[in-house]
Structures are given as C-alpha cells and as structure tokens.
C-alpha cells in the first residue's frame, strides 16, 4: 500500500516486510528512508522529489512523517521504519542468507570500525569491503571506488553519505554495479555502528523524539529547526486543504438531491 505525504508515495510496510521485499525482488532495489527534513527539502526542490520518487522502496523514517500522514487522514498502518532499524534488520538477514555487504561512508576509519562491530554482533555476517565517505564523487576516485566495489562482489550496499548525496550517488552508480541487488541510503548509521555517535534511548525513539535527542547530543543540528518549522507549517496547510476538499466533496449536490427525489432508480453506493 502507498501513502502520499508531501508529494512522495511511501510504502506502508513494516521493517521485516521491507527487508524481504528488498532482498527477494527481481531487480536491483534502491531504498530511501525520508524524514521530515528531507520532505521539506523536496517541497522546495522538484529535482530531489524526483530523485526520491525513483526509489524502489520509500520508507517513513521519523515521527514527523508518520504524524503528517495521520494529519492528512492517511495514517501508516505499520508506523515508522527508521533507516538504522531497517539497516540492522537487513544486516541480520544478510548474515542468515550469506549475503555479501559493502559499507560506504563516514570519516576515515569509521566504516572499518563499524564493520568490526557488526561482525561481532552478527558473527555470520560477511562484510566484503568498506570505503570512507569523503571522496571525489565525480572524478577518478569515484571510478576507482566502482572498481573496488565490483571486485568485492557485494549483493548489498549500504551508502552513508548524508542526504541528498547518498541518494544521488546510488541513482547514478547503481547501474554500474551488477552484483548489487540492494542499495540503501542510511545517513549516519555507520557512525552509530562504529560507536562514534550514541543513538537516542528507546524511550525517546518510541515517543518519536529521536530528532530532539540528536539535536541535544549534536548541537550543530539545531540549524535544522527552521526547516522543521517550515515542514510543520506545510503539513498544516496541506491538512487544511484536505479538510476543505473533504467538506466540499461531502456537501450534497443540489442536482443529485433533486434527482434522488425524482428518480426511483437512483441507488446510493456505500463509501
């Protein structure tokens, strides 16, 4: 089932179903996990909206997206699917299935440290290779990186370059990587797996306040507050427009009422 929020059609599936869909699909699966900040950006950037819309799986990462859908009258059945939760469920499945994984992103040493920690957590996991995230994405280094990834023959590629760089990189380079069946943009997940950043406590996650925790833990993220305010205003505007449309559609049409009175063959259909 698809649920549209701010012009983007999200997949309303739980984490485990999303992992199965990603791994068992016939074609290479491009996974994105938009949050409120990404949706606010897409409202101003048709190019980025097209970029995310081109993904195979679009999962709602963040309480803001889930609350926006509910406010628009189309709530998610399965709730939030955080990118890092999807990533960990995917890695668990990879370990069980014998899939080869490549980790791309983070500062120098982060991907390697994350790989070591993930191998301890999932002993059967095969991390075929890692590469840092600060490389020239348009030059010779990117071409060398493609060669490195191809030589590792991964079936799953986790790209943690931040939005929109990671989505742009996947869209441009996935066709060059024939062994990769799943490519997912997972933001700062490598920093968490490497132990460089602490994730919000479970209570904060369940309350949909992981974004607030991250702002407290990483004060530079306070710069995102204006965008969150704009997203909230956008959701209120869309909700008001939706309510107005529903009221208009629900209002009885005088012509139909007249026909109902005059035509015995008129039959109302259940909504």
Descriptive key words:
single chain, 271 residues, alpha/beta, Rossmann fold, six-stranded parallel beta sheet, two-stranded antiparallel ribbon, 13 helices, 8 strands, globular
Largest sheet: 6 strands, parallel
Tell me the total number of β-strands.
8
CATH architecture verdict: 3-Layer(aba) Sandwich
Unreliable residue stretches: 246-271
Q: Characterize the overall form.
A: globular
CATH topology: Rossmann fold
Proportion of residues in helical segments: 40-55%
CATH class (first level) name: Alpha Beta
- What does the radius of gyration come to? 22 Å
CATH homologous superfamily label:
Response regulator
Counted up, domains total: 1
Helix-strand layout with pairing:
Blueprint lengths: L1 E4 L2 E4 L3 H10 L4 E4 L3 H9 L1 H8 L3 E2 L4 H9 L11 H15 L2 E6 L4 H12 L4 E6 L8 H13 L3 E5 L4 H9 L8 E4 L3 H5 L8 H5 L3 H8 L7 H26 L3 H9 L9
Helix pairs in contact: 1-5, 2-3, 2-12
């Amino acid at each position: 089932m698809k649920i549209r929020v701010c012009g983007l059609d999200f997949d309303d599936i739980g984490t485990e179903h999303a992992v199965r869909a990603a791994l068992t699909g016939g074609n290479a699966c491009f996974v994105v996990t938009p949050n409120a900040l990404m949706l606010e950006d897409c409202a101003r950037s048709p190019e980025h909206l097209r970029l995310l819309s081109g993904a195979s799986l679009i999962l709602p990462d963040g309480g803001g997206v889930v609350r926006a859908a509910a406010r628009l009258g189309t709530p998610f059945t399965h709730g939030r699917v955080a990118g890092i939760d999807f990533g960990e469920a995917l890695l668990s499945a990879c370990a069980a299935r014998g899939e080869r994984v490549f980790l791309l992103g983070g500062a120098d040493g982060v991907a390697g440290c994350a790989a070591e920690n993930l191998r301890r957590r999932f002993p059967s996991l095969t991390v075929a290779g890692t590469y840092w995230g600060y490389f020239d994405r348009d030059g010779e280094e990117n071409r060398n990186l493609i060669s490195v990834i191809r030589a590792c023959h991964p079936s799953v590629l986790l790209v943690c370059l931040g939005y929109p760089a990671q989505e742009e990189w996947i869209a441009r380079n996935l066709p060059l990587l024939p062994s990769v069946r799943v490519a997912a943009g997972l933001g700062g997940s490598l920093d968490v797996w490497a132990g460089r950043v602490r994730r919000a406590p479970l209570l904060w996650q369940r309350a949909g306040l992981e974004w607030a925790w991250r702002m407290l833990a990483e004060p530079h993220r306070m710069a995102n507050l204006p965008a969150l305010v704009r997203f909230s205003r956008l959701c209120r505007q869309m909700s008001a427009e939706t309510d107005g449309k529903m009221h208009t559609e629900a209002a009885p049409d005088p012509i139909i009422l007249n026909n109902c009175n005059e035509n015995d063959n008129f039959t109302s259909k259940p909504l």
